[in-house]
Design brief:
By secondary structure, the protein is α+β, with helices and mostly antiparallel strands. The protein has one domain: Arc Repressor Mutant, subunit A (Orthogonal Bundle), CATH 1.10.10.10. The chain has a two-stranded antiparallel sheet. The protein starts with 13 loop residues before the first helix and ends with a helix.
């Protein structure tokens, strides 16, 4: 079964966009494909089972997508660089992302 959500456009309610984004970033969805068409970003996602993103995974993903170094993220969050790296890998796996470029494209909303 495929679930579909569409947000954006002239008639879009901002709260619907935020709700869809939060649902995606919760880790309950796995990215199947990212692509751009005519300047608009499209994300194809599939509902996934398993644990959602932890708070630490989400923090690491968001900061790494902005280009922050793992060492800086680790120091700010009070964890080791190894833990930060593991949380980054786990979060990317949960979201179905293979590269940091995919992460950056996803987060550049």
């Amino acid at each position: 079964m495929v679930d579909e959500a569409s947000v954006g456009g002239a008639d879009a309610d901002r709260s619907d966009e935020v709700k869809t984004w939060d649902e995606l970033m919760s880790g309950r969805w796995r990215i199947v494909e990212l692509f751009d068409v005519e300047g608009r970003r499209h994300v194809v996602a599939q509902r996934r089972s398993g644990a959602p993103l932890s708070r630490l995974e989400r923090q690491v993903l968001e900061r790494r997508a902005r280009g922050e170094a793992l060492k800086v993220i680790a120091m700010d969050l009070g964890v080791s660089v190894a833990t930060t790296s593991r949380r980054l890998r786990a979060g990317m796996h949960k979201l179905g992302l293979g590269t940091l470029a995919d992460l950056s494209r996803l987060m550049a909303r």
